[in-house]
Design brief:
It contains 16 helices and 18 strands. It has 605 residues and is α/β, with parallel strands linked by helices. It has a six-stranded antiparallel beta sheet with strand order 3-2-1-6-5-4. Strands 8-10-11-13-12 form a five-stranded mixed beta sheet.
């Protein structure tokens, strides 16, 4: 081989080495460029996160912070439109920010206007359907990339008027392993790649804590709102109960004297018709006060052990006639026993009121389902539902497929005299009565509803385990209501006291009367004759009825006692009225009822 050939071969080898070296340098430079681009991308992402967090810390406005984040996401991914949502209880996807979406109003104007109005009024939109692309990202906890949504089996379709979806990328926001939200973008020219997935994944990881904080804030706000609502209802209940109690004293007088006047007039006396109208109005007013007392938990209940499934089954045929043939009634009752300790009449009233409400919510057709279950409420449930108690309960649910209620209506449905029905179609006391009866029976009531999706009322009643016990038998009424015994009448309301005295005197009894406990004690100490019965109001100024009875028993151990009141079980119970063997008369009462009850107490040993 000549020197020229050696030189030529060496040059070729050197050129080859140089080309390989250049290629290596080019690859290294490309990797550097990629690394620099990735660093710039991460820096941009971090800047976005930093700006978002600063915006939130500066304003405390979740919607504004979400809008800033979304605009940065759209810029970085070159997307046409997108949204940011948080998963709240339900589960529901609550959209806090959306941009670039333009609906075709001509195709779906009603939805567009409703959605726009809701977004403007409350600051977010909510979606409960997850049979679509963004739903898959939430349920799976994994990014969903679809560069041809119309043919993608996961798409689930779009509502009419929705903007065209050519490409979609949804990445769930995670807090640990829990999905707390979603960032979705759509219509990037050329579609989405792993690069955009990585970009959004970094963002969602960083803001996971922010949106988890939003969820906790919403739960706490909801609990505070529930607590304030319960306190508001408590205050209204106390006011309604106080008014109803005083009104019952007046009705005792009105109805009592109406009965007396009717009895004194001849059958052909034209004034009897007028008195009958007064009496009818008095009865309607008494019904109204009973409902007010029920709401205020100040009515006297007569609880016994009842099997809830048996009550529902017995009422079923009547309920079908009430709701009409256009509504289907379904019963879904638990197989096991469902015993509760409750006043049967009040339980029937609760069921009937809920059924009537459901019927009115389905004017054309629908399905009404009554279900029972046995549940054990834990501390977490009690914490999330102020007013509920931990322990075994029987759950009664009444569900309809009617028009449903918005959030504002749900917040007021238990208030007395609130109604969404037209004039002369309701007093607005149906649900408030249900609320009062349930609370007074130691239960808890909740409602689930949404416009167009029906309503479900859930009533949790303490489960009664001693189902073998029997209620004590009721005392029979005496055939005669007259007598010659001596009665001490103690009542602080003068008109009621006068009516009671006249009624008892008219039936042959001798009546001693006092306006309060102090006067009664002075009268008895000065009176040396026999005393057969103490007829006393329970709640009086200075000394209440049970306290008076206890002091009088020391002086007259053979004296019997009959209490009268319109107050609540909880008040009377604290006074010892509902102890075993204690006699009680509920106001308002008529003279005839008073006389029969007095005769019953005096006759029984």
């Amino acid at each position: 081989m000549t020197d020229d050939e050696l030189t030529k071969e060496g040059l070729i080898e050197e050129l080859t080495r140089l080309r390989e070296r250049c290629h290596q340098l080019e690859q290294r430079e490309a990797r550097h460029r990629q690394a620099e681009e990735a660093l710039r991308g991460k820096a941009s992402q971090l800047e976005t996160i930093h700006t978002t967090l600063l915006a939130f810390l500066g304003s405390g406005n979740w919607r504004e912070a979400s809008a800033r984040l979304l605009r940065a996401v759209l810029d970085q991914t070159a997307s046409e439109y997108g949204f940011i949502g948080v998963v709240v209880e339900g589960p529901v996807l609550r959209i806090l920010a959306h941009e670039g979406i333009v609906w075709d109003q001509a195709i779906n104007r009603e939805f567009y206007e409703t959605a726009l109005r809701t977004y403007q009024e409350v600051g977010y939109l909510e979606f409960t359907r997850f049979e679509n692309l963004f739903g898959r990202a939430i349920t799976s906890g994994q990014p969903v990339l679809a560069n041809d949504p119309p043919t993608d089996p996961r798409a689930g379709g779009l509502p009419p008027g929705h903007p065209p979806l050519r490409h979609f990328l949804g990445v769930p926001t995670l807090r640990g392993a829990e999905v707390v939200g979603l960032i979705g973008v759509a219509n990037r020219p050329g579609g989405y790649t792993g690069t955009e997935v990585a970009q959004l994944a970094l963002l969602t990881q960083a803001v996971g804590a922010l949106y988890d904080c939003y969820r906790r804030h919403q739960r706490e706000a909801a609990l505070e709102a529930q607590l304030r609502h319960m306190q508001k209802l408590e205050s209204i209940g106390q006011l309604a109960g106080g008014i109803a109690h005083d009104f019952n004293n007046l009705l005792t007088v009105i109805n009592g004297y109406s009965d007396d006047l009717q009895a004194e007039l001849r059958q052909d006396d034209p004034r009897r018709a007028k008195i009958a109208q007064i009496r009818l109005a008095g009865e309607r007013a008494a019904t109204l006060t009973r409902r007010l007392l029920a709401f205020g938990r100040q009515q006297t209940l007569k609880p016994v052990i009842v099997e809830l499934n048996h009550v529902v089954t017995e009422m079923a045929e009547m309920l079908r006639r009430v709701i009409g043939e256009h509504i289907e009634l379904r019963l879904d009752l638990t197989a096991g026993p469902a015993h509760v300790f409750m006043d049967p009449a009040q339980l029937n009233q609760v069921i009937m009121n809920l059924i009537l409400n459901a019927r009115d919510a389905m004017p054309e057709r629908g399905v009404l389902t009554i279900a029972t279950r046995t549940v054990d409420l834990d501390a977490a449930f009690a914490h999330g539902h102020p007013g509920s108690e931990v322990g075994p309960h029987v759950l009664l649910s009444v569900q309809d497929t009617g028009i449903g209620m918005d959030t504002e209506t749900q917040a007021r449905i238990f208030e007395p005299f609130f109604t969404t029905k037209g004039p002369a179609k309701g007093t607005g006391l149906g649900l408030s009565t249900v609320f009062g009866i349930v609370k007074q029976s130691g239960g808890y009531i909740a409602v689930e509803s949404a416009r167009g999706r029906g309503t479900t009322f859930h009533i949790y009643l303490p489960q009664f385990s001693n189902a073998g016990e029997e209620a004590p038998p009721a005392m029979p009424l005496a055939a005669s209501s007259g007598g010659t015994e001596i009665i001490l009448l103690v009542e602080d309301e003068a008109m009621v006291r006068t009516l009671a005295r006249e009624a008892l005197s008219g039936h042959g009894y001798r009546v001693l009367e006092a306006a309060n406990g102090r006067q009664a004690m002075q009268l008895v100490k000065a009176y040396q004759g026999p005393l057969h019965l103490l007829l006393s109001d329970v709640i009086m100024p200075g000394m209440n009825g049970p306290e008076l009875a206890q002091q009088l028993k020391a002086l007259r151990p053979d004296m019997k006692t009959l209490y009268m009141s319109a107050y609540a079980d909880e008040v009377l119970g604290s006074c010892g009225v509902f102890s075993a063997g204690v006699n009680f008369l509920q106001k308002p009462f008529t003279p005839a009822i008073l006389a029969r009850k007095v005769r019953e107490v005096l006759t029984c040993s």
